[in-house]
């Protein structure tokens, strides 16, 4: 596996990141793309884990850096990692050979990103993030480059189609 295209969606909690990724997942499906999504759990502490009595959780608790279980066409993976760096998750997602990996969160990571701000105050804090390729901001916000007004899903989908055709966002792994 040499690499994969990656598009990150970053913003503050409750800014609409998940809604935008869900919109873009639908658009990617229309375009016939196979996608993957990885997310930073920004709610403090680890995400909810399965019952500690399961074998895979016992392996993890006993020190396995990775513990995985599969059944019924679904795999569940637990990975001991630095939660500030999405690269291990991107590598994991790339194993299924998607056309595109979406990242939610990990604001400071240096991937091409959509920055999402509900308020002009939030935009003032976010506009310095690296690699912003689309700003989704309130109508009154002053944003350079490609811009969509928050809530204008048609404009966001249109931008995504142009971005996909442009062939950027490729990350070597």
From TrEMBL:
Tell me where in this chain the Molybdopterin-guanine dinucleotide biosynthesis protein B (MobB) domain is found.
6-126
The cross-references to NCBIfam families, in alphabetical order and at most eight, read:
mobB
Protein name listed in UniProt: Molybdopterin-guanine dinucleotide biosynthesis protein B
Name the species this protein comes from. Bhargavaea ullalensis
